[in-house]
Design brief:
Elements (H helix, E strand, L loop, with lengths): L2 H36 L2 H21 L3 H14 L6 H31 L9 H8 L3 H16 L4 H24 L4 H25 L5 H4 L8 H34 L2 H14 L4 H19 L6 H25 L1 H9 L7 H17 L2 H8 L2 H26 L1 H27 L6 H22 L7 H17 L5 H30 L1
């Protein structure tokens, strides 16, 4: 598979994922807007803290299989070893189910023993945890089912269930809870019902449209052999990696809850999702990038990987920067429009978080490249160091600076892990994204942000919508005039545009029919 073919497949596949992810994030923000209209910041902070506990439990109980499964499915498909796939899928599902059921028994009591005398001294969070923990087995099985489809290149399944059905159902249940005047417990039950509802639809979809043809599943007797051991060996470091990467946000919430009031936690957790939009493009492309490049590794066809890495990173950052510039320059505007003036205290924290999150797009597909190459051990070590840095900085800064200290810790830890992974990809795989055109793009965006901040401080910018439009148009005109994209990339974009139009006309009606059936 050539560089052109691989990039085409990644971008065309991620186009649908990007649209779905964007819709999902909008629905998530709308849900938070509904909840913050009903709940006081203190209650919303309690709900956020409980969700953090459940997220930690769910990430740990998934055992890293949500990343290991798609990588190995694509890898074995590249080697034409399809006979190993049924064992791979069944063993992953069984391990995930057992871990999910155990988490119901262990997590509430463990939380009570660790936090009962700390930030949950009043006992408000534990009852919420005991309700939400029931969703963990459903969440794990949903994660693994989506991961299986991802390994087979059916990445749009993630969009159907995680980006549309799950957040849309949560929004509907949340609205119902608000309309009937439910308290915090009503909101919590709405969240649980949404997860069960989403899993039920996924179960029906899996039965009607299984990822493996039925004749393939019946070819061989399922045995737990070296294939399962390989999956466990590869996935366990990813368990540590995923848990610690998520801890970078969880530590913020936990330490803010310990040192500060629930109101501070509520404000911080309301503004934090906004920077998630800065990972929108790379998350969508990376979702397709891993199975495509894993298959190339399985075929031992590594020659195109360096060019794929550099091209995709440049495109990703080029598309992400405009949103970063707007969030960084106008944080107060975004917060006020979405949540109201009572949450505007999180503006400085949002700006700092944006600086940390943009590093994800700037350094590009380092994590995904290492993941596809099988370097899960380094990803684990890297995440351990980064999470440790975040914890130390938070411990030092949060008591005095509150959410600003938490944001600084997250920004530094995210930047640290991105630099570490980029150096690893360069030293081990001889891959990096820093071409001459990428360096030129870096200089351009620094000058643009500096100019916007200077204009805002001089009261030349007010935050009007027409200013955003002029900025977007001007940015892409500058990129075009500076010839950031070479002729080959422009031709690739033309081909991708044709394929995207074709895929939209072909797959969207098919997807609607599949969900309807």
């Amino acid at each position: 598979m050539s560089v052109n073919d691989s990039v085409n497949r990644i971008v065309a596949g991620s186009g649908v994922i990007l649209a779905g992810t964007f819709i999902g994030m909008l629905l998530d923000i709308l849900t938070k807007k509904v909840l913050t209209s009903q709940l006081a910041p203190a209650d919303f902070g309690t709900y956020s803290l409980a969700l953090t506990v459940i997220s930690i439990t769910g990430a740990f109980a998934t055992l890293g299989l949500n990343e290991g499964v798609p990588r190995y499915i694509a890898f074995f498909r590249g080697r034409h070893e399809d006979q190993k796939l049924p064992e791979l899928i069944i063993s992953a599902m069984l391990m995930g189910l057992i871990a999910g059921l155990l988490s119901i028994l262990v997590s509430p009591s463990l939380f009570h023993s660790l936090a009962g005398n700390g930030f949950d001294a009043e006992g408000k969070i534990l009852p919420v945890v005991r309700i939400l923990i029931l969703a963990v087995p459903f969440t794990i099985l949903l994660n693994l089912t989506v991961a299986v489809y991802r390994g087979f290149g059916r990445t749009s399944v993630n969009m159907y269930f995680y980006n549309i059905i799950r957040p849309a159902s949560l929004l509907v249940f949340a609205i119902v809870a608000v309309l009937i005047g439910s308290s915090l417990n009503g909101v919590v039950f709405a969240d649980l019902l949404s997860m069960i509802f989403t899993f039920g639809i996924m179960a029906v979809y899996f039965i009607k449209r299984p990822p493996i043809k039925r004749e393939t599943k019946q070819k061989r007797k399922i045995q737990f052999s070296d294939t399962t051991r390989q999956l466990i060996r590869y996935s366990f470091p990813l368990l540590i990696t995923a848990t610690l990467l998520n801890l970078m946000s969880w530590i913020d919430t936990i330490m803010l809850g310990y040192f500060k009031s629930a109101e501070v936690v509520g404000i911080y957790n309301a503004v934090y999702p906004l920077v998630g939009f800065l990972s929108l493009v790379i998350a969508s492309m990376g979702y397709v990038y891993v199975p495509v490049t894993s298959k190339l590794w399985g075929q031992n066809n590594t020659a195109p990987l360096g060019s794929i890495y550099s091209v995709m990173t440049k495109w990703c950052f080029l598309l992400t920067f405009p949103l970063f510039a707007l969030i960084f320059v106008y944080p107060e505007y975004f917060i006020t429009k979405l949540y109201g003036a009572q949450y505007v205290g999180g503006a400085t924290a949002l700006r700092i978080l944006a600086m940390g999150f943009i590093a994800n797009s700037y350094f590009g597909f380092n994590y995904h490249t290492l993941l596809a190459s099988g370097d899960s051990d380094f990803l684990m070590k890297c995440s351990v160091a980064s999470a440790g840095i975040n914890a130390v900085i938070n411990f030092l800064l949060i008591p005095e600076y509150g959410m600003i200290g938490a944001a600084i810790g997250t920004a530094i830890s995210y930047s640290t892990i991105e630099v570490s992974m980029t150096l690893r990809a360069w030293r081990k795989q001889n891959m990096h994204p820093f071409t001459s055109m990428y360096k030129k793009l870096t200089l351009i965006v620094i000058l643009i942000v500096g100019s916007m901040l200077a204009a805002k401080n001089a009261h030349l910018l007010t935050g009007a919508t027409w200013e955003y439009v002029i900025f977007i148009v001007g940015y892409f005109l500058i990129v075009h005039r500076a010839k950031i994209l070479d002729n080959t990339e422009i031709k690739m974009i033309g081909e991708i545009r044709k394929n995207l139009r074709y895929n939209i006309r072909l797959h969207i009606p098919k997807a609607l029919k599949a969900l309807a059936s």
